[in-house]
Amino acid sequence: xxxxxxxxxxxxxxxxxxxxxxxxxxxxxxxxxxxxxxxxxxxxxxxxxxxxxxxxxxxxxxxxxxxxxxxxxxxxxxxxxxxxxxxxxxxxxxxxxxxxxxxxxxxxxxxxxxxxxxxxxxxxxxxxxxxxxxxxxxxxxxxxxxxxxxxxxxxxxxxxxxxx
Length: 164
Description:
By secondary structure, the protein is of the alpha+beta class. It has helices spanning 2-26, 56-59; strands at residues 30-37, 40-50, 76-85, 88-90, 119-122, 128-134, 142-150, 156-163.
């Protein structure tokens, strides 16, 4: 009788793990945040997809690495980076995010939360959106990036990729 339970347990665990693997291969990860301040309403939406070395654009992604560890390829890259300001789309050039591999898309509690994730906040005067993102990558160097999206289209990016 104990053998029967073991086999049922094994088949159940094996079956669930196979379903999880199949789901992981097909899902798109995403992060959405709605921010309001006064009359200003901003929506940030970031979608990821699996890195595909067969795609021409993917093979051009730089992958700096730390020390003597040889680089590997990212697991995920950003598929889309959308900002809507009062329901109007803001054009975010691909150069702002194309090389941000393996970002951690979890909500941070605030700027003091130094764990990995995304922090987004409207600046004073509500004319700009500050986005801070981090990466934990296997083989590639980790990074922290600050992206400032402005209503007038003058966007800025600062990146620190000196993290081990």
